[in-house]
Amino acid sequence: MFSSELKFIVQLGILIVFTRIGGHWLRRWLRLPGVLGELIVGMLIGPYALGKISWPWVGAMFPPLTGAMPISTELYAVATFASIVLLFLSGLETDLSTFLRYSVAGTIVGIGGVVFSFLLGAGCALWFGLADSWLDPHALFLGAVGTATSVGITARILSEHRKMDSAEGVTVMAAAVFDDVLGVIILAIVVGTVRAETSGGPSWQHILWTAGKAFGFWIVATVAGLLLARRFSRILKYFKTTQAISALALGCALLVAGLSEMAGLAMIIGAYIMGLSLSRTDLVQVIQREIEGLHNILVPVFFATMGMLVNFAAVVPVFKIGLIYSLLAVISKVAGCGLPALFCGFNRHGAIRIGTGMLPRGEVALIVAGIGLTSGAIGQDIFGIAILMTVITTVLGPLFLSASFENPAPGLRHPEDTTKTVAPPIVLPFPSADMADFMVSRIVTAFRNEEFYVYRLTPEEPTYHIRKDDIFFILSRDGQEVRLTTSQRHATMARLLVAEEMLTLRSMLHMATEDGDYASFEQNFVATLFQDSTPPPAE
User: Fold this and answer.
1) Do residues 34 and 132 both lie within one domain?
2) Is 319 in the same domain as 270?
3) Do the Cβ atoms of 81 and 294 come closer than 8 Å?
4) Using N-to-C axis directions, what is the helix angle for 380-404 and 137-145, rounded to 10°?
5) pLDDT averaged over consecutive 10-residue blocks of the chain (539 residues)?
6) Domain limits at 200?
7) Backbone φ and ψ of 419, nearest 5°
8) What pTM value is reported for the model?
9) Is position 382 within any domain?
10) Are residues 510 and 370 part of one domain?
11) In a domain, 536, yes or no
12) Is 65 within a domain?
């Protein structure tokens, strides 16, 4: 038999291997988001499926544990750490200017989603006779479970589709964060009400204090992070190496996440705030590059762990009610978030993307349901309904959101106010791919010197998304060609910047070829480089 430490290592290895295989298989063969493969792998190998099977010599690899959490504390801790890394990087990928511009829209969308979800969830409990009144614990918990949005799942899909800093993506992230804040406040009120019923009287002071503390921390942490970000980046630069800078930034994200949890919010909100604060500093590329490997390894483990929490036996007795509740949960987010988006400058395409982006409940709903179960406020039936809704929305959310981005139509009612009409790409041919790469690096450096936000879309391909306020550029290299795409309004700026870099390069080459001493310099340099520096043997 394995020791507990060895078993945890083997469990982690199994999750890493099979989530990567499952995610790759779904992306390559079914053209589905990789996160679905990771969730499905978690369901299959989890404690309620193959994980409980006892194998010779090793026993069950993922045996179900008693309590609200069927997996080990160590495994859940790794998943929590992975969710912090995911949301920290999501904050780094978010363009701050765009986030602030759409924060009001995000707030309105978040409020709409919370109100619709709570009313339809609680109404469903009353409809099927699961609750006697709106203040019944069953009604309150079914309402609270449906309010929050899984920021992690939505962020993953937006990142995969390179829409993190789009108007819809930023609005969804802002709404999801505000959604979670309101969801946690509602949960605090619900838990306080339930405890008050069992203890003999409502402690409204405690409820209001919890809600005020959570909301206050969110406001103070966000404002403080935005104001102190540049000063914090200067402090990080004292440590010189990129590894040290990235490690310290991630460590601070963990600290803010812990403070967020202590204040009554989810840890992932604190991590997102930290990433958002650093998104406009010149260290963002350094931190992203160093943490990307950790992200690729651990984040699939997070989604697999969420799948492992699904108890199929708890779902079966209430399957019919769970399906109807799940349908109402889908409608509540699509309508509750999509309709307000129509009044915030988005068209039908943008409203659908925002509504579907708010669908996944994921870990937040599971946490709320777990609190209700462990507190005795709900039984296995209500818990099973919540589980089924979580699974359905978590599966449908990525599918619908990915499908909504297949249509390239703009999501804003008046896209000319931001990006205008896209101009034909500026194509620059070069004699070789190496020269093209060199020119790309020159252009990227020039944009950064002008305080543009530069984000490399994927490590595998030399494509950059460059943005500053409402100015955007897409810079890429295709073989020996460099392509620069922007709006009609900003095409002249792009041509001038490229022309300046080309003139600088031409001037450097001209000086090198016409300088009479260059040939001798080259000869001496090569001779020095390859001369034998080994001392002659002693006679």
Assistant:
1) no
2) yes
3) no
4) 20
5) 79 89 76 71 87 81 77 86 86 73 82 90 90 81 83 71 75 77 66 59 62 79 86 85 89 91 77 85 80 86 81 81 92 91 88 88 66 68 82 83 81 60 76 84 83 63 70 80 81 82 73 59 63 57
6) 73-415
7) -105, -15
8) 0.68
9) yes
10) no
11) no
12) no
